[in-house]
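Need residues for this backbone.
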């Protein structure tokens, strides 16, 4: 499998893991990549997301998605992914489940649709897309 997607989510944050993996793998191929790589996706609560947002971006409050590239201009900037694995480590995508639920309700869409949108947005950032 060219893209390995590692998902970490507490049971209180129910997401369709199979769908998430399939969407990210499909995007990986669509973007023209075929090499082996790994991306980590963590689904967290508001408090954890606010902590990460403050610590790494210096911004207060939670946000819906953060992306931490393993290899940026400064190399291993954040150090979340364990080094030494055979595959290329893209980095980490962090999703805030409570904010996703709020956005899904506001937009009258399924929660997993919003998870998909934000995970794809995070993947684009890991691949070098600017805001």
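Answer:
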């Amino acid at each position: 499998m060219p893209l390995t997607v590692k998902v970490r989510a507490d049971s209180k944050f129910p997401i369709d893991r199979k769908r998430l993996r399939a969407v990210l793998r499909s995007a990986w191929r669509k973007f023209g990549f075929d090499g082996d790589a790994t991306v980590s996706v963590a689904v967290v609560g508001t408090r954890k997301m606010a902590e990460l947002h403050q610590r790494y971006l210096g911004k207060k409050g939670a946000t819906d998605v953060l992306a931490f590239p393993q290899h940026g201009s400064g190399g291993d900037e954040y150090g979340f992914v364990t080094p030494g694995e055979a595959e290329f480590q893209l980095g980490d995508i962090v999703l805030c489940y409570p904010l996703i639920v709020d956005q899904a309700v506001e937009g009258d869409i399924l929660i997993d649709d919003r998870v998909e949108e934000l995970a794809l947005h995070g993947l684009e950032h890991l691949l070098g897309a600017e805001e």
